C-alpha cells in the first residue's frame, strides 16, 4: 500500500460520513495515472497553487482600485483568507480539507482586473456575457497551460463554479467555501474600509454588532463557530437564523456603505473606460492578440469575442494599464 492509498484509507476511518472521499471522486475529464503520494484533491490543490492565474491574483483589485498603502487586500490575500476560514470549518466538521482548500484557492482564478467593476464591464460588452465563476472554471479547464487546462476533478470544478450566493455546490466542502467567501470579504472589507476612513467601527449598526461582535476577530469567531455548531451531524452546511440573518444584513450595510460608496468607487469609471477600449481594440485588431489566444480561435474554434474576454479577464490591474498606454498613449519621438 503506497502513501496515497494509506491516506485514502485514513479518510474512511476519520472523516465525517457526509464528507467527499478522495477515492470516490467522479474523476477528471482526462484520465491520468494516480500519484503514489498525493490524493486527487491534494494534486488539484497543488496544481492551482502553482498555476500562473493564481500568481496574477496578487495584482488584482479586491475592493479598492490602486490603493495607496501596502495593507489593503488584493484578490490573492482574499483567496488566502477564504482558504484559512474554509479549512478551519472543514477540519472541525471532519470534512475533506484538501478538497475544501483546492476549491477555495481556485474560486477566483477567473476574476477580472479592477474587481467586480471589471466583471460588470465585460458582462455588459461581451455578447455571451461574463461571470467570474464561469471564467474560473474556464481557466482551469482550458486557458491554463496554453490550452491544456489543469484537468481538475469534477468536485473541485463544481465548487469553483458554485461559490457565489446563488450557487448550489454538490459537496459539503463546496458549501463550506461558499459561506467562507462571504465571511472573508465581509470582515476584511470592513477592515479595509476603516483603514481607508470610509467609515468607523462605531458606524456599524449596533443591532449587528450586538449579535456578531464589534471587532474583526469577534465577528469571525462568531460566524465560524455558528456554522460548525449548526452543521455538525448534518448533510448540509448552515447557520442559525440569528447569526445568518445578522450576517446577511451586515452584508447589505456593506453594499450601501462601501461597495456603492462614491469615494471608494471614484476610479471605477476610468476602469470601465479602459476595459471597454481594450475590448474594442482587440475586436477590431484580433491579430494583436498573443499567439496562444489566437490559437484558441484558429485551432479550437473558440469565438473571438470569448477569447478577447479571456485575455482581458486574465490581465492584472497593472498589465491592463500598461497595455492601454501601449496602444492608446502617444510615445515620445526618438531619433
Percent of residues in helices comes to 55-70%
Mean pLDDT: 95
Classify the secondary structure makeup into a structural class.
mainly alpha
CATH superfamily of the largest domain: Hypothetical protein af1432
**Number of self-contained structural domains:** 2
Instruction: Fill in the CATH topology of the largest domain.
Output: Hypothetical protein af1432
What's the count of strands? 0
Over the alpha carbons, how many angstroms does the gyration radius reach? 21 Å
CATH architecture designation of the largest domain: Orthogonal Bundle
Strand content: under 5%
Span between N and C termini?
A: 70 Å
Number of helices: 16
**CATH top-level class of the largest domain:** Mainly Alpha
Shape: flat
Query: Assembly state here?
Result: single chain
Largest sheet: none
Q: What order do the helices and strands follow?
A: HHHHHHHHHHHHHHHH
Low-confidence stretches: none
